[in-house]
Amino acid sequence: GDSVTQMEGPVTLSEEAFLTINCTYTATGYPSLFWYVQYPGEGLQLLLKATKADDKGSNKGFEATYRKETTSFHLEKGSVQVSDSAVYFCALSTDSWGKLQFGAGTQVVVTP
Amino acid sequence: GAGVSQSPSNKVTEKGKDVELRCDPISGHTALYWYRQSLGQGLEFLIYFQGNSAPDKSGLPSDRFSAERTGGSVSTLTIQRTQQEDSAVYLCASSPQQRGGAQYFGPGTRLLVL
């Protein structure tokens, strides 16, 4: 069945450091790929998405490129801030109506 | 505009009792989803509704779980004879689009079964 694997956390970084969170997937067909973020005490929010191979999603300085050849959708940010501390979830949907299959989540802690 | 709302925000119940969790989706969104977030299992899909189509119940963990969506809007998730392993945060999401569309999540209902 479909699955998403993302790197385990917590990932601890200093402010202004470069962030990468690896995400790989297994799916039949051509899934849409998403990154969701959950800030402390808040609900899940869509961070970015890509719906076909080689698409790049971007938002708030974060980027991820849909790589079909490596079945990956790694999340990157060039310079993190303390406010980026959150749990990040990689997800896919192959269903016509977009039900999501989530990875386990990666906690990111950014220190001043 | 108003986002997805869920009630109650917290629910404590005794093992064996039934609970009802409510979700109000964003107005006009045709698709509605329920997920569960727990420490041991992460984020799991439970059920979704799309317009007037039959719901996809493939994620419901047992027949103690059921959900309905009245008038294509509000949804209620019911858990009968609750067990301690049902303790989790239950998340509702809605979406206006078809395949590949973003889902907008509510704040969740934190359920604790004693």
Task: Give the gist of this structure.
Chain A has 112 residues and is an all-beta fold. Chain A has strands spanning 3-6, 11-14, 19-21, 23-26, 32-38, 44-50, 56-59, 62-65, 75-77, 86-93, 101-102, 106-111.
Describe the structure.
The complex is a heterodimer of chains A (112) and B (114). Chain A is mainly β and 112 residues long. Helices cover 0% and strands 50% of the residues of chain A. Chain A has strands at residues 3-6, 11-14, 19-21, 23-26, 32-38, 44-50, 56-59, 62-65, 75-77, 86-93, 101-102, 106-111. In chain A, the strands form three sheets. In chain A, strands 2, 5, 6, 10, 11 and 12 form a six-stranded mixed beta sheet that branches. A four-stranded antiparallel beta sheet of chain A has the order 3-9-8-7, with no helix packed on it. A two-stranded antiparallel sheet of chain A has the order 1-4. Chain B is built from no helices and ten strands. Helices cover 0% and strands 48% of the residues of chain B. In chain B, strands 2, 4, 5, 8, 9 and 10 form a six-stranded mixed beta sheet that branches. Chain B has a four-stranded antiparallel beta sheet with strand order 1-3-7-6, with no helix packed on it. The model of chain B has no long low-confidence stretch (mean pLDDT 91).
